[in-house]
C-alpha cells in the first residue's frame, strides 16, 4: 500500500458504492448519444507489444542484463516457456523435450529461431542455478535462461497468458503451464504449442510457424525475406505419416 | 416504455461511472496488488462489489498494464451507438458456375487426383489438396466416389480481406478489416463478406467448391489471423480429403477443390446407393479449421452457412415437410461476440489467451444489435453459435413487458428432430445450431399492442472457460436481434402445434466397442486420455461401417467443452454428473462453479435417455460436455476411409490443442478402449 494517498483512497472507496445487481453489463439496448471516441492510429504490432511483450529487464544465465522486448523478441522468431530450476515434475520433461527439439531444428536455434526459458522462481533461481540447469539438460546456443525481479517476472507471465483464473491453481508452482509460445514478432504471428507433446511434432509446429508465412503469393511475386531460409513444402515436415489407403 | 428508458439511463450512468472509476484508478497509479490489498479485488481478479466497476471488466484485464489502456479487454470495448437501427444482414446465396468459368479452368478443372503441378508464379503446387501439415504427400487425397457420383454443380470462392467492413452504422466505430469468402468472382469488386455467402445444395446433386486462398501476407494480418486455410464443412458426411480437417491447410496463391458426393450417410454401406434418408442434414456451416489458428481465423470472419435441401426439407413451404420457404421466411443467424480495441476501435483478438475468449460487442450476422422486419406468420431461423467461446441461452423477450413468457418451437438441434418441441429457451455451445420456428402471429397475441420482441441471451458467463449457472432475469441479459412485427401475410407453412413428423431418428444398434475419452488439463495443457494432440499421430482405428459408443468425461467443474466429431453425427444416450471423481487437479473449492447443466429449455428431460434434455434427443455433431459430466454418445462410421478429428469446439481450446485424430479403415480391429 506504499504511496497510497488520500485521493486514491477516495477513488477506491467510490468504486465500492456502485449498486450491486445481476445484470449483464454489456446488454445496453439503448443508444448512448453522448459517446464519442477519440481513437488513435496505433499499429497492431505496437498494440501487441504494449499488451503482451513488456520490455522488462531480465538477467540471463550468463549474468547479462537484457530487455525482454527490445533484446529478446523484437524482429525475432521465438519460443518462450516458463520453468524453474528445482522443479521436479513437469520442467525436466519439457526441458528434455525442448533439447530434442533444438537438435531436430538442425542449427536453426540461435540462427533464426531463439528459445527462452523464464524462471517462475526468481527469488531462488540465480543465474548460476539457471546455468547449471541449462548445462544439465544439454541446452545449446540460442537457448537463453532468464530470471529477474519477481514483479517483472509475474507481469511477464501474465502478459504472455501463462496464468489460470483459479487462484489456487495459479499459485501452485508445480502445476504451472507447460505450454510453449511460438511467435514471429514482426509478422504478428503467435501460436501456442504443448510442451509435453512429441518433440518431433513440436519441431514440426515450430518449423511450420516460422516458414509457412514465406510460402506462396497471390500477386505472382514470391515473398522474400533474406533473414530466413525458404524451405519448399516438401521439406517442411519431416515426419509426415504414411499415406492412407483410399479406395475409390 | 418509461421503465425501460429509466433502466437504461441507470445502466448508462453505471457504465460511465465504471469507466470513470477505472480510468481514475489507473491514473492514480493503482496496481492490481493495491486493489487486492484494499479488498476491492480478489487475487483472481474478481472485483468484489459489482455493477459499476464490474468483475468481468477486471477479470480478464492484462496484469499490471492498467486494464483498458491496454486495449483488448472484456468490458473495455467501445460500444456502438446504433441499437436496433441497422437491419439484420442476410448473407447472399453463392451462385453456381459453369465448368467453363475461368476460376474452374485455372490450373486444371476439378479432377480425381490433386493438381500438384507447380505453379511457376508461386513455386507451389496449383492445388493445396494432397498437402498435410503444409507438406505434399504425392499420390494421396484423391476424391473418394468421384467417378461414381459425378459432379453436377460447381462453385468458386475466393478468400480475401475486406478492409471496409462495418459492424454498425455508427460512424464513431471505424471500418474493420475482416477476412472472408466472396461470391467467387476474380474481380476486386467481388469482396469478401461476413457471414460468408450461403451455399445452398441438394442431396443427390454432387458438387465441387473450388476455394482460392487470396488472403494478404502474414504481416498484413492486422494483429491476428494466419493466411493458411482449411475450410471445414461442419457436420457434412464428407471424405477426409474434402472435410477441411485441421491438418489439410493450404497456402496463399493455391486453390483447393472440395468434392462432396452429396449422399446421406450409409450410401456405400447400409443404405446403398443414396444413404439413409433419416440421416439427411439441414443446417451446416463452413469455417476455417487451420490447426492451432482456427479461433483467430474464424473470429476474423471465415465462416458462413450451407443449407442442404432434399425432397422433404425442400425450402418450399408448399411441399415436403412444409417448413417456411427459403430465403424469405427461412433465415440463418450466426451469433458472434467481439472485442474492440479500446484505443483504436478495431476488432481485436488475444492470441495469448488459452482459456477462452469472450467479447462484449454482440453481433448477429456480423452486425451489432440489428433488427429484422417480420410479418405476422411463421419463420424458420437457423441459429448458430459462431464462437469463439461464449455459451448462449436464448429467450424471446418483449422489451416493454419482460415478464411475458414467449414460447417458440425447436425443429432441429443440430439436425431435425422427429417432431417439433415447444420451448421457452435454447442453449448453444460453440458450433451448435438450433433451427427454431417462431410464429409471430402467436407472439403478437401474447404481446398485445407491442410490436417488438428480441432474442435475448440470458446466460451469465464471466470468462472463456464456461458459463456460470446463473440465468439473468428477462431484460437483464444481452439482446442479440430485435424482431419488428408488421402485417399478416399468407402462411402456407406447417403449424408445429399439429405435431408434424419429420425424419425418424436413425436406429441405435449394439456398438462394436465402447471407448472412453477424458478431456482434461495437464499443467495447463489440454489432454485427451492424458495425451497430447499431434497431426502425425492417428490415435486409434475404427473399423469401417461399424458403430461405437463413446464415453466423454469432463473431470473439472470450472471448464465446459463443446465436443465436435467429424464424419458422422452422433446421438446422446446419457448425461450424468460424475462428481469430479477423476479430477487431475484438486483445484480450489472456492472457485467451484458447479456443473451448470442445461435444464431443457422448458421441454423437459428424456425418460428414455437419462439426463438428456428432450431437445437433445436428436442427431448431434457437437455436444456440450458440461462441468463434472459424463456423456455417452453413439455413432456410426460409414462409407469413407481416412483420418478425422475429435475436438473441443471452444475454438480457443481447440487451438491449444484439445484434439485427437482417428482413422477409419476396413478390416482393422483396434480394441483400445482408452485411446
Structure, described:
The complex is a heterodimer of chains A (248) and B (675). With 248 residues, chain A is α/β, with parallel strands linked by helices. Chain A has a domain at 44-213: Glutaredoxin (3-Layer(aba) Sandwich), CATH 3.40.30.10. Chain A is built from nine helices and seven strands; from the N terminus they run ααββαβαβαβααββαα. A seven-stranded mixed beta sheet of chain A has the order 2-1-5-4-3-6-7. In chain A, helix 4 (90-104) packs across helix 8 (199-211). The longest helix of chain A is centred in the middle third of the chain and has 15 residues, at 90-104. Chain B has eight helices and 36 strands. Residues 1-66 of chain B have low confidence and may be disordered. By secondary structure, chain B is mainly beta. Chain B is globular and about 65 Å long. Classes of the chains: A alpha/beta (248), B mainly beta (675). At the A-B interface, helix 1, helix 2, helix 6, helix 7 and strand 6 of A face helix 1, helix 2, helix 3, strand 3 and strand 4 of B.
How many angstroms separate the termini of chain B? 58 Å
Helix content of chain B: under 10%
| CATH-level-4 superfamily name of the domain at 44-213 in chain A | Glutaredoxin
Biggest sheet character of chain B: 8 strands, mixed
Describe the global form of chain B: globular
Q: Assign the CATH superfamily of the largest domain in chain B.
A: Cupredoxins -  blue copper proteins
CATH architect. name of the domain at 44-213 in chain A? 3-Layer(aba) Sandwich
Under CATH at level 1, the class of the largest domain in chain B stands as Mainly Beta
Overall CATH architecture of the largest domain in chain B: Sandwich
CATH fold topology of the largest domain in chain B? Immunoglobulin-like
* Total count of strands of chain B: 36
Instruction: Give the helix/strand class of chain A.
Output: alpha/beta
Task: Return the structural class of chain B.
Answer: mainly beta
Total helical segments of chain B: 8
Please state the average pLDDT score of chain A.
79
